Structure formats: structure tokens, C-alpha cells
Amino acid sequence: VQLVESGGGLVQPGGSLRLSCVGSGFTFSWYVMSWYRQVPGKERELVAGIDSAGGSTNYADSVKGRFTISRGNARNTVYLQMKALKPEDTAVYYCKVRSSSSDYWGQGTQVTVSS
User: Fold this and answer.
1) Do residues 84 and 64 lie in contact, with contact meaning Cβ atoms separated by under 8 Å?
2) To bridge 106 with a disulfide, which of 5, 25, 65, 83 should be the other Cys (CB 3.0-4.6 Å)?
3) pLDDT for 11-53, tens place per residue?
4) DSSP bridge pairs for 111
């Protein structure tokens, strides 16, 4: 199982970014996919999740109305569209899949929101 995130960077408050995570080594369309984020000294927190077909999503309260998770199963990719970014969204963002009772993580992509 391999997950590769991309799309992070430096953005001003109020700006937007779209993160991508490409999965390989497993049947992507079978699994729930999730985005998490982590800042130094804090636990990794769930940002958003999406079911295997893309019909059901869930979000942390802190990002509801600003972030949108989606997936393209034909491309083995899950996305996180982030709008109205705030400095407190600064973190390393990871995608995750649970397969065969094990959690697999990507290497993470840094998002920095600063003027």
C-alpha cells in the first residue's frame, strides 16, 4: 500500500489550495479514505472522510463549510479542496486508508497559511 500526497504550499489567509492523494497497492475503490492533519506537539486530527463510492462524507467542525473532500476512483485519487484558509489550518496534511485492519499513511504535505 502506498499513498502519495501533493498540493501543499504557502497561501495567504482567505486563500485556497487543493490537496491530492494517489493510492496504489490496493483496490482504491473499495475503501474509505480520510484526510488528517497534525501540528507539532499535537495529536493528528481527522479533517474529513469519504466512503468508497464518494456518496457520504464527514468533516471536523473546524473545517465544515470551507473544505470539501472528493474522490476519483478511476484515478485512485482522493482530494481535499480547502477554501477560506485560516492560519490555524497550518499543519502537515496526511491521507489515510485502513486496509486489512492496518492503517496506512502517506508522507504528508505541508500547508502553511500566513501573510
Assistant:
1) no
2) 5
3) 999 999 999 999 999 999 999 999 999 999 999 999 999 999 9
4) 9, 91
What are the angstrom distances between the C-alpha of 18 and each of 27, 29, 103, 108, 110? 23, 21, 23, 14, 12
Cα separation of 20 and 43, whole Å? Answer: 22
Residue type, 10: L
What is the identity of the amino acid at 94?
Answer: Y
**Type of residue at 48:** A
Positive or negative, the Cα torsion across 40, 43, 49, 52? Answer: positive
Contact 36, 97 (CB under 8 A): no
% of the chain with per-residue pLDDT over 70 = 100
How many residues does this entry show for the chain? 115
Q: Using an 8 Å Cβ cutoff, are 91 and 67 in contact? A: no
C-alpha cell at 75: 484515478
- Helix/strand/coil (H, E, C) string of 41-92? CCCCEEEEEECCCCCCEEECCCCCCCEEEEEEHHHCEEEEEECCCCHHHCEE
